[in-house]
Amino acid sequence: MPRWMPQAKERLRDAAIELSAERGYENVTVTDITERAGLTRRTYSRYFTDKRDAFFAGMEQLAAAVGAAAVEADESLGPWDAAVVALRTVGDQLVQFVPTAELRRQVIRTSPELQERERTKAALVAGSLAEALRGRGAPAPLAGVLAEVGVIAFNAAFDRWLDDPEGAAYSERFDAVVAELTQALDS
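Structure tokens predicted for TetR family transcriptional regulator (187 residues):
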């Protein structure tokens, strides 16, 4: 068997998600995942530390991408607008790389263990965004609130996009969530 298997990480991730959707997350083992992917446990261990990791591969990259996008946003933007630009930009990029996102969402909704990890992912993204906003001069408490609210809007827009991926683009869904949020806060 060759030492390098093409798209091994993606095959393992997809196998974990598909099997969990079929059987339930708690009823799937790492061995089941590796067998479905046609790979070994050793290969699995190269990419993931445990079964949950397959569902959250790239989590650190998402947080870093959001933070970087906020840093790179036009200097004239205030903290909220910089957060909105960053989250919209990264969201548009993210939806291009999520072929199993709907199945993943279904599995996460049925597993408290995965829901906890999903909250950790959101906290990492919010933390990275808040740090970027502080770097742009926003006071720490405000940066934290704006980042948390922004991540909630990001996730709401992503859910709307998953509900109808053939409909409006992610950025349109995100802009609609931000507009609804702004209207609610103004009333």
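The radius of gyration is 18 Å.
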